[in-house]
Amino acid sequence: MLKKTLIAVSAIPLTALSLTACGSDSAADGSASEDDGTITMGFAQVGAESGWRTANTKSIQETAEAEGVDLKFTDAQGKQENQIQAIRSYIQQKVDVIAFSPVVETGFDAVLQEAKAAGIPVILTDRAVDVDDPSLYETFLGSDFVLEGERAGDWLVENAADSDVNGDGTVNVVQLEGTTGAAPAIDRAEGFAEKIAADDTIEVTASQTGDFTRDGGKQVMESFLQSDDTIDVVFAHNDDMGLGAIEAIEAAGLTPGEDIKIITIDAVKDGMTALAEGKINYIVECNPLLGPQLMDLAKKVLAGEEVPERVVTEEGAFDQEQAKAALPDRQY
Amino acid sequence: MSESSSRAARLLRHPLLWPVLALVVLLLVNVVVNPNFLNVRMQDGHLYGNVIDIMRNSAPVMLVALGMTLVIATRGIDLSVGAIAAIAAAVACTRIIGAGDEAALTTAVMAMTYAVVVCVALGAWNGFLVSVLGIQPIIATLILMVAGRGISMAITDGQITTVNNPFFSDLASGFVLTLPLAFLIAIAVLAFTAVLTRRTALGMLIESVGINPEASRLAGVRSRTIIWTVYAFSGFCAGLAGLVIAANTNSVNANSLGLWIELDAILAVVIGGTSLAGGRFSLMGTFIGALFIATLARTIPNIGIPSDLNYLFKAVVVIAVCLVQSPKARASLRVRRTGPPTSGPAPTPAPAPAPAKAGISS
Description:
heterodimer; A: alpha/beta; Rossmann fold; six-stranded parallel β-sheet; 48% helix; B: globular; carbohydrate binding (chain A)
């Protein structure tokens, strides 16, 4: 009993201490952002799992600097726990606006509630979340991944005759999925499946996650090549897995782009180079340069202006000829 | 007759029996699903097939696990190996890119040497924290596990760095005598470690430190130097592993390279029969354990486990292997199946006396 009381008593000054620490911290932060009118933005990035992502990060950091936005940046290294922690710390620091690209779609309800309770608007970039209450975030700026998958599927349907490389009457597709549970992986697979359903000869024979990395794409593709020698097409959910698949295909003594056609999504520089060299056949663009649009949205939200719930980024698609033309200007 | 039955009993008690059996069963599962699984053919002058891929892909885990085995034998653990691998890759790739002639052999050799030296230094840092400052190994190496990723990100500016150097690429994709070079490197390190620890007293000294550091010190063993050395060696192995992984895709991705490899390596060590409590260690067991991990990774796409069930499948397999290896779990299973122990075919019907964990002979 005495022990318990002692613990309780000793806990009080500790809590008080930490409270004052927090209080003085956020007061300093708050006054800084209110006085000189600069916007403080907390951005919780997924990680740097691909060239696309690093281009995305760079665009946001550079635009923030150019527009005088005080950017607090964290890298979640692909882990949701880290990201939730980062968002919590932004709430504690009382930033003006929080932006993040969710690692996975679900599980963000609680932390978004906290942000809402603290009166901090949240902007999602690149990836969506699955929450019951859409008022938990202001807007979602990013690509339409279903549309990207559909574009890849459309191209394959249009080029089905050429894509049946071994001429056995069916186009056997293997799919290299992104990180399991991530929005781009789910949506790209969905869009792609929807479009290729139009052609009975196209069939996805195997599908496995390569975690959006080159190493993952290479290892999964190696396995596919060993167990099936009738593969006509690889559909990779990003360029990096496609580049890994190219190495696996070359190691198997086949020519990527000819013996096996490759479709990827993203259009980063390394991917575009491979496309221009004929090792990839088609790339659907997923534009990472969201910085300017993000800063613009943040300013509008903070000024109390109405913003649409969904803002889609401008994107194209490239075949080999277009890649050769676009490659010299590619920044990322 | 009694001689043959005692030989069978000895085989049954052989520490490598269960790891080997687990590997064989896993291979069999693959063959049942895909009858061509074990096929190997010649392709461009080297062997080509699932088994060859498994050999090559097992190299990084095997290298890391070899270093880990010695660390664990001293009753330690090294969580920083994944981060050290990422640093090695980052250092090597940035040096190759920064070199005058990116594709030259000397560029590759210089970059790799430099990277490995850095990694030995990082390993020595871990050893310093553990042996001199007396910090618990799990905490001491946790520092570099977290900080190391940051260091490798800083080296590469957070960008995926792609290199074009055929000699560097050969480290992972090259073949010597029709076998993958990466696998041969891992085997060479295994052989080197085996000779060093088993042909000299070093192995025994490592085990004695793991069993009781204080008693070893009082007996005149330089515990501190030995602990320091095994962490440096673990750093060396992790560095080599990082180079192999980077060479595999000719690029370094500081965020994902070698991520969680420490867990795979610890698993390989444990599957191989080395106790986490320190003391006795088995390099051959680790070798089998690493092959098992690589085979498991190949099994998932081969038998077509859906992506969302990957981790569950791995967990179930690993739990099964660990249960099968535990003498207690096996004994309780046997009792339940056959009822009260009668005179079975095995000479020891009661729970087999667990081999003394603390034995320093092997």
